[in-house]
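Hey, why these numbers?
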Amino acid sequence: MKIDVMISADHINKEEVIGKTIVVIDILRATSVITTAINNGCKEVIPVIEIEEALAIANEGECILGGERKALKIDGFNCSNSPLEYTQDIVNNKRLIMTTSNGTKAIKRCEGAKNILIGAMINAKAVSDKVLNLEEDIVIVNAGTYGQFSIDDFICSGYIIHCILDQNPKVELTDIAKTALFIYKQSTDLSFIKEATHYNRIEELGLLKDLEYCCQKDIIDIVPEYIDGRIK
């Protein structure tokens, strides 16, 4: 078993994801939203890249529209990209149509992979258990921020790798995977995440409770999976 890491949605190499098990990470905040919504009873999440596509799908039946542009709620959408909005009374037994600046793009660009799992800090241990059971080579895809490397996703990658190695120390790591693990070990309290550009953007918007929530470890024990255009 081998683990590799890609640093942003814009760095996804199709040849390196085809037939692989992928873990997509966008902890601030798309994959945290998806994991929370599914955990709270959401029937399925349909990730799309463009706002217009989300609106078109929404016209086909009862659903919730969620997402962001530049970390702000999209006009006409039901919810923003705050996981705290996706409570059980809002999402239970509903479809969520979602579009974000980074996370949904990363998910869609991984199409063709054997498995596409949704990971975040809040379900990292569950993700590690899942990939160990699959016994496949893993590529951890960081959504990043507007095509660029993002500290927050990279540290989350390191934590997932740490959890995997706890159970199987013989797993092979690429150099970038080793680096992610090293960075996490220097900041196991996650304090270094506060240096991330995107973290600071969300902080400037006053969304401190979102940051606190998304930086919690292992509070959810499910692993949503993207199959045929839907996350369940």
